[in-house]
Amino acid sequence: MDVAGQFANTEVVGFCESRSGDLWVGTRKGLFRQREGKWVTFPPDNWLARSELRAIFEDREGNLWVGTAAAGLARLKRRLVTTVAEREGLTDDAVLALCEDRQGDLWAGLEDGRVLHGKPGHFRKFPGIPGFGADAPIRCILESRDDALWIGTFGNGLMRFKNGRRTDFIPSIGKRARVDKVTALLEDRRGPVWVGTFYALYKGTA
Predict the structure, then answer these.
(1) Residue 74: CA count within 13 A, CB half-sphere
(2) Greatest mean pLDDT among 12-21, 25-34, 52-61, 123-132
(3) Chain-centre distance of CA 194, in angstroms?
(4) What DSSP element (H or E) covers 194?
């Protein structure tokens, strides 16, 4: 497996392919874009290029959202960078997880254990986890095809919300799986939700 030179000894925290075919890579040393085989730091003259990134996501309108470790949330629309911070409803500058639901609302998981959703400037706290994740960062969020909302924390396990009901998977799915430290969530085409943890990969159920 070849290693891209600029990413040697660099932690890659996320990547996505845009609708235009560009490959975006978020690292702890900034944001990079590959276009026609060439890598560039993006944007080269902006604070985002020097920030420690924690999450990256493209929404249905083609906006690229970037969560940072200490500078809040940023939106890239073409070459314009818009910052989302406390005055837009963000309660923590460390944004670790991003997701878009079917209504087009953005979901953001924060290091302080809170989950926000809505539109920039109109974020509201998700009431489903009062106190649950207060001491555990939110590492991943997923809306599955059955309209369930999955929230993975790094320390307090996995939660699933559907029809107003919350199911907690602490500390296990089944008899042996350990999911107190969740790092990734993915729903495949056949329906199961895959749960990546600090320890292993597990196949969840609806």
Answers:
(1) 25
(2) 52-61
(3) 15
(4) strand 193-197
